[in-house]
Amino acid sequence: MATNPMEKYIAEVKDFTEGMLVQGKVIEVRPGDVLVDIGYKSEGLIPRYEFNDPDSIKPGDEVEVLLEKLEDDDGMVVLSYEKAAIKKNWDRIVNLCNEGGTIEGKVKAKVKARPAAKTKMKAKAKPVPKTKAKAKATAKAKAPARRKAR
Prior knowledge:
This protein has 150 residues and is an alpha+beta fold.
């Protein structure tokens, strides 16, 4: 067990890397942003619009955020609540696909003739068979190149 203050501090220091999910504590709620402490040398600001219900956030709340950058030009940590939620959902989708599950969702848009769905992660994921994906890639490769008109 660490006896002097410096040894205690070194034992408490966490390894932070960009792109990781970290737990933070809301320090202050401002009109345009939320100040969050993740235990690094400086706090980070998250825009209020990233939270589903910004009026419900209060000092002392625990939030899981994505560490985008260890330090910006002002020396502050760059954090994102919204990107943390996206990363957690994507990780769940990948895990379901690896387990052979199926995902159900509502179609919210059509992107390049393919539907884009919004899911609530209540269902299972169904991976696309490799033969279909390979056939599409082969067809695209065999298609003649288009030239720009001058």
